[in-house]
Structure formats: structure tokens, C-alpha cells
Amino acid sequence: MNKKLIISLSVLFSVVVVALILFWTLFALSSVSVQFHSTKINLQGLSDKEIVEAGGFKYGECVLFEGKKGYEKNLKNATKNNKLFAYIRVLNIETVFPNKMIIHVAEREELFSVVTEEHTYVCDRDLRVLRIDPEEQPNTIDVNGLKIKSTEISEGDFLDVEQGAIKDFYSLMLQTNRDVSELVGKFKSLDVSTYTESETEYYSFKLTTNQDRVFVINNPKFAFSEKIKLMFSFESTLFGKSQDGQVLDAGGNQIYVKKYENEYLFVSKEKEPVAQALTTEFLSHCAIKVDNLPLDKHLHRTEKDIYASLLEL
Fold it and tell me: Residue 44: its pLDDT value, please?
């Protein structure tokens, strides 16, 4: 082989090796920090250092080739050693070039107290268990009737339930500009039950407010978002205006209802002469129910095919 070629290749090889060493040194992970995007009410006893250590970050490894899923999994599983980690929500792990990472986290907020015969599980919006059998009464929504499929539940676990629509509760409520503090301030309980329609079993949510107003949402698996919007719309209308014990709509007109089977439907007095005027006294003994239009009469119903009525309690 030509001597010149050998020298050229040796020089090239040396340059490549040096470049790789410099490259690896430049992009070698050297520091990891934590950035919170929420309050730290239940995380006062957990330091940034403990969070970083729980991630098991590989210092000295090139940040360009480091997968972050493993670090996120480590943080998720850290509850086994410290129960406070149950309150950690990892939003993402950001790579800051050339050689740093930032763990973006938020505190999981207590929203539900899922009550069973054996235990009470204080959970966040995703049904992650934050506490079990708290000594004091938490400021949460009591949930009764959930069918839990999970076994041997510990802090940090996610409850596996049959009524999965409850996991959409927070995000859909948030669409109506109600965050966790407003939800726990408004609702005191959510009771889950089942009913049968056209030989098919469905479940329903009964929501009771701190003002003792009751709402029933049938089949929340279907059109849950639209049903929530309709529920709040009717609450605003029915509890908005009244005069001399009569319930009025936004325009000041009397509201009329007519009983049909086990519910009271909202009707026009002109079309239904036998309809009764809705009074504040009668309303105080009713729940606002939001339901689908019957499937046997609306085979191709859409999410807009829903209605509201009153149920006597």
C-alpha cells in the first residue's frame, strides 16, 4: 500500500477519533434539574434531588442517544420507596443542548375518594391512588359504586375500573372551565349505578352538589361531553329565575313540564294544554336527568340526540 495513503488514512482516523471523543464529551449528560408547573401542597417533603435520583439518569451518556421512557418509568415506580412520588406527574423530560435535561413535573391533585367496602382510595383525575384510608376527611368528591378490577392496590397504582368514563370526567369538566378546585367545591358525591334499556345494561352517574342539587347522567360512555354541557345549561336555566314560586326561563317565561312514564319532560303550554307549571318547590324534589334519545326509535342517533328531563327523588 502506498505510504502516502497509509499516512492519510491514519490522519483521517485520528481526526475521526478525536471528533468522536469531543462530540461525546460535549453531549455527555452532565446535569439534571426539576421544574415544577404547579403547586407543591403534598410534595413539601420531596426534594428536587430525590426526584432526580429516582429517575436513575445515566450521567456521561450522550443525550442524543438516551431514551427518556426508562427515566419516566423509574419515576413512576419510585412510589414503592417513597409514597410521595404518587403525587408526581411527569409532563415530559426535556433535553437542553448540549448536555442537560430538565424534568418537567406537576403535582397530582386529589379529586376523588373512591369508597369500597374495605378501603377509601384518594385518587387524582386519572384514578391514580395518592392515599389509602386517610385519617382526615379529604376535600374530594366521594365516589360510590365503582366496580374495581384491580387487586392488591397500593399508593401510586392506577385503579382499573369497569366504568371507564369516569376517567374522562375531569377533562370534559375542564372544557366547561371548571378545574379541580371548582369541581370539589361544587360536587360532594358521585354515585354509580346500573339500569337496563332494550335488554342492555348501562351505567349512570348521579352527581350531588354541595347545594344538594342532583344530576343524573345516563350512559356516560355515549356523548358524555354533550351531556355535561346540557346538564349545566339546564341548571343555569332552572335555577336562574323565579317569581312567586314559579320557575322562569331566561326570557322571563313560565316553564312547563308534563309527566311521561317516570320522568317529567319540558313542553310548550300551547302544545300541551294539560302541562303543569314548574314550581321551585317541585324542582327542589327533582333531579335533572340527561339521557340519550331511545335507541329503538333513533337507531342512528348521534351525540346531539340527547335530552334533559326531571326525575322525582
Answer: 92
pLDDT tens-digit readout, 258-269: 999 899 999 998
Domain count, the chain: 3
**What percentage of the chain has pLDDT greater than the value 90?**
78
For residue 118, give its domain range.
110-212
CB 21 within 8 A of CB 27: no
Distances (CA, A) of 177 to 167, 171, 201: 17, 10, 32
Long-range contacts, 9-12 (Cβ 8 Å, 24+): none
Q: Tens digits of per-residue pLDDT, 76-111? A: 999 999 999 999 999 999 999 899 999 999 999 999
**Is residue 121 within 8 Å of 153, Cβ to Cβ?**
yes
Q: Are residues 83 and 171 in the same domain?
A: no
3-state secondary structure of 218: strand
In a domain, 18, yes or no: no
Residues 38, 94: one domain? yes
User: Which residue, of 212, 233, 257, is where some domain finishes?
Assistant: 212
**What was the pLDDT predicted at 298?**
57
90, part of any domain: yes
> Is residue 119 located within the same domain as residue 205?
yes
Give the relative orientation of helices 69-77 and 48-55 as an angle to the nearest 10 degrees: 120
Task: Give the per-residue pLDDT at 299.
Answer: 58
| CA distance to 6, 14, 15, 92, per residue, from 9 (Å) | 5, 8, 10, 44
Q: What average pLDDT does range 242-263 have in this prediction? A: 94
